Each structure stands twice: as structure tokens, then as C-alpha cells.
Amino acid sequence: MTRQSFRADLLMLCIAMIWGSTFVAQRLGMDAVGPFFYSASRFLLGALLLLPLIYFRSAPENASSESLWRDGALLGLIIAVGINLQQVGLQFTSVANAGFITSLYVVIVPIIGLFLRHQMHMATWAGVALAAIGMYFLSVQGDFVIAKGDYLQLLGTLAWAAHVILLSALSKKHDPIRLSVVQFFVCGIACLILSLILEERASQHLVPALPAILYGGVLSVGIGYTLQVVAQRNAIASHAAIIFSMESVFAALAAWLVLGETLSPRAIFGCTLMLSGMLIAQLVPLYLQKTPPSAPHAQ
């Protein structure tokens, strides 16, 4: 693990903290507006916040504008699928459950990586196992009955896994700010179209939803997703998945602090297992001086 990849890991942990707390904003935002309108508002806001940076930064775009729009549009549509399934699902499940199910891509990403001919250190698999078990203890209390919202969250998890893997490759080809603006804009427009088709405009009350929209647009989208693009330029895909799984821990903590959802000793034990899994996947390969867990074969 290089110093750059270690710095990227710390950055992704901060991102996971932002995203975890955003689950609460997503729930509160839907008290005033529909799920598609909320998603459209915060992603378009995130894109607008980043536009000035393109003009004030001197960093050139490495690829053609056609390639930038193609790759950004693909990432934006994948985000739109994942975020809308997540947002609608939050109406029918708890914040803790949503965080747990969303973070299941920690298991999906390394499995997909095998088909992409990525090498996996044994410590990575141990970290994946501990993180998955920890997420179970964190969010599954007693009998786990699959609700409608849980099914939607599970479908959205496939989109998040695809986004993590694709971004690891595409973020190296483009300027991160430009790529972020394109994917946010495409996602926001897609969500806005869905809102105009599926939601009644009379039911949208923008002013009460503004705090949640600003939190989701500025922190989660404008800062979080942009830092994800920057971090994954130097990150290992399987590391990214494990660290981003900590999003569910921060979601449960935020739900406990803001919404009053209790965090039981069983859930705290799950948080401990997840943190242990993340540390094992990061530190054991470094200690043994082995090849990074998911370094791709030379093509």
C-alpha cells in the first residue's frame, strides 16, 4: 500500500461518515417532498456548486469531451438507479436497515472483481467476512422479515457495486471535477424527469425540505461524491468497498442521535466487527509486505 492509497483510504472514511449521516436527511426530506424530487434537487445542486471550480482550476481534461460525457453519463445513470431505489426504499424500512443493505456491496465488489481478474489478498476476504457479519449484527434485530423497502435497497446495492468498480477505472481518465459535474447533472436530470412523470407537483413543499436538500446537495453530493472521485484515483477497489461499508455504522449512529432509533449492544458489537474487518483488510497486507489486495493483472 502506498502513501497515496493510504491517504485515499482516510478520505473515503470521511466520505462514509458524510454518506451515513445523509440517510437521516433523506428520510427527513421526504416529509415535505417526493423521493424523486428530493434526489433531483440535491444532485442538481451538487452539480451547480462544482461548476465554478471548473473555471477557476487550471487542471486540463485528459480525454475528449465526448468521452467525458459518455463516461459521466454512464456513472450518472447508475447513481440515479441506486439513489432512487434507496430513496423510495427508505419510505418502507428503517435507516439502520437501509444502511446495512446498501453496504452489502462490500461483498459484491470483491466477487465481481474475481471475474475481472483482480487478485485478492486473503486478508481482504477476511475483512469482507467480518464486515458482512458485522453489518448483520448491526441492523438485523431478531427475525429479519424482508420488507418492500428492503427489497428495493437490495436492488440498489447492485448499482452501488457497479458504480464503485466503474469509477475506479473511469476516474483515472478524466479530471475529477469535470467528471463529477457530468455525473451529478445526468443523475439530477434523470431524477427530475421521474419526478415530473410520477409525482404530483402540488405535494412538493420546497421550503420545509430546504435544510435536508442543502445537507444532501452540499455535503453528500457536492463534497462526498466529488471526494469519492478524487480518492478512487489512488484507491484499491476492494478497499473502497470495505471502507464505504462503514456508511452503515455512521447511518445507525446518526439515526440514533437525530431520529431516536436505538443502538443496542448487539448493534455496537456489529460496529466493532465492521471496524475490525476494515483494519484487517488494510493493515495485514501492509504488515506482510504483500501485493495490494485487488491490484489488477497487467493486460
What is the compact description of this entry?
By secondary structure, this protein is mainly alpha-helical.
Folded structure, characterized:
The chain is mostly helical and 299 residues long. Helix content is 76%, strand content 0%. It contains twelve helices and no strands. Helix 1 runs antiparallel to helix 9 (206-231) and helix 4 packs across helix 7 (148-170). Mean pLDDT is 79; it is low at 290-299.
- What distance lies between the first and last C-alpha atoms, to the nearest angstrom? 21 Å
Poorly predicted tracts of residues: 290-299
Number of strands: 0
Q: Which strand-content bin applies to the residues?
A: under 5%
Cα-atom radius of gyration: 19 Å
Q: Could you report the average pLDDT, rounded to the nearest whole number?
A: 79
Shape: globular
Give me the secondary-structure category.
mainly alpha
Approximate helicity band = over 70%
Topology order in helix (H) and strand (E) letters? HHHHHHHHHHHH
Total count of helical runs of at least 4 residues:
12
SSE blueprint and pairings:
Elements: H1 3-29, H2 35-56, H3 65-89, H4 95-102, H5 105-115, H6 122-139, H7 148-170, H8 176-198, H9 206-231, H10 237-244, H11 247-259, H12 265-288
Give me some keywords for this one.
globular, mainly alpha, 0% strand, 12 helices, 299 residues
